Amino acid sequence: MNEAPNSETLRQVVVAALEDIKAKDIVVMDVKHLTAIADFMIVASGESARQTKALARNVTEKAKAAGAQVMGVEGEEAGDWILVDLGSVIVHIMHPAVRAYYNLEELWGASPSRARRNAP
């Protein structure tokens, strides 16, 4: 069994998994200074329920393969907003309209950065 990855490594694994399935507008928020529940929140958009479900599935598979524990997955039934809890990294995969309505980036007040696999 793999050793559990640190939050930075897990962030990179998640971003890569999202990019593999063509997620749109991936934003990584460093929330370490805002909350004790996670180090990073990642928000991404999928164009359909089928894509959001595929994105969530790929994130969980890649995270497990990297040695991370999946704490929970919520919202898979409807597919318009799926939350994947990886402990130190929380992933929100949303339809664009749902994402615009809830605007998590502004709600958290974190300084979001557009994700790239090798971003610092």
TrEMBL record:
Pfam family, one: RsfS
Principal location listed in the UniProt entry: cytoplasm
Keyword Cytoplasm: yes
Subcellular location per the Swiss-Prot or TrEMBL entry: Cytoplasm
Alphabetical UniProt keywords: Cytoplasm, Repressor, Translation regulation
Subunit architecture: Interacts with ribosomal protein uL14 (rplN).
Family to which the UniProt record says this protein belongs: Belongs to the Iojap/RsfS family.
Annotated function: Functions as a ribosomal silencing factor. Interacts with ribosomal protein uL14 (rplN), blocking formation of intersubunit bridge B8. Prevents association of the 30S and 50S ribosomal subunits and the formation of functional ribosomes, thus repressing translation.
Name of the protein described by the UniProt record: Ribosomal silencing factor RsfS
Native source species: Thiobacter aerophilum
Gene encoding the protein: rsfS
